[in-house]
Automatic annotation (TrEMBL):
This is EF-hand domain-containing protein. The keyword Hydrolase does not apply. Residues 16-51, 68-103 form the EF-hand domain. Keywords: Calcium. One of its GO terms (molecular function) is calcium ion binding. It holds the Pfam family EF-hand_7. The keyword Isomerase does not apply.
Length: 107
């Protein structure tokens, strides 16, 4: 693959993740901290269904719901909370999505 094409694809993917992050915070960051707490992620996962039209948010909800149901959500959260703050910042959020994607999940 041409390096220029790869760079463009990487930049587009980064923008997509940033948009997902921004949308998530706008809708589900209940304490306004600008981060994601485990409790906020659990509340999102416990929604019966994601009712919006964003396919990335739908995929995130499907993953979170499944991880919450099988008991792996807290472990996934803690595994990427590298600073131990109990809150995910954008870089940690990206890491969580990437790790689950590497395991074959559709996040």
């Amino acid at each position: 693959m041409d390096a220029e094409i790869k760079a463009k694809e990487d930049a587009e993917f980064e923008r997509t993740l940033q948009n997902l992050w921004t949308a998530w915070l706008k809708e589900y960051d209940t304490d306004g901290s600008g981060t994601i707490s485990l409790e906020e992620l659990k509340k999102f996962a416990e929604l019966p269904a994601y009712t919006g039209s964003d396919s990335y948010m739908q995929t995130l909800h499907d993953w979170a719901k499944g991880a919450n149901e099988d008991g792996s959500l807290e472990e996934a959260f803690k595994g990427v909370d590298t600073d131990g703050s109990g809150e995910l910042e954008f870089e940690e959020f990206k890491k969580m999505l990437a790790e689950d994607n590497e395991e074959g999940e559709e996040v």
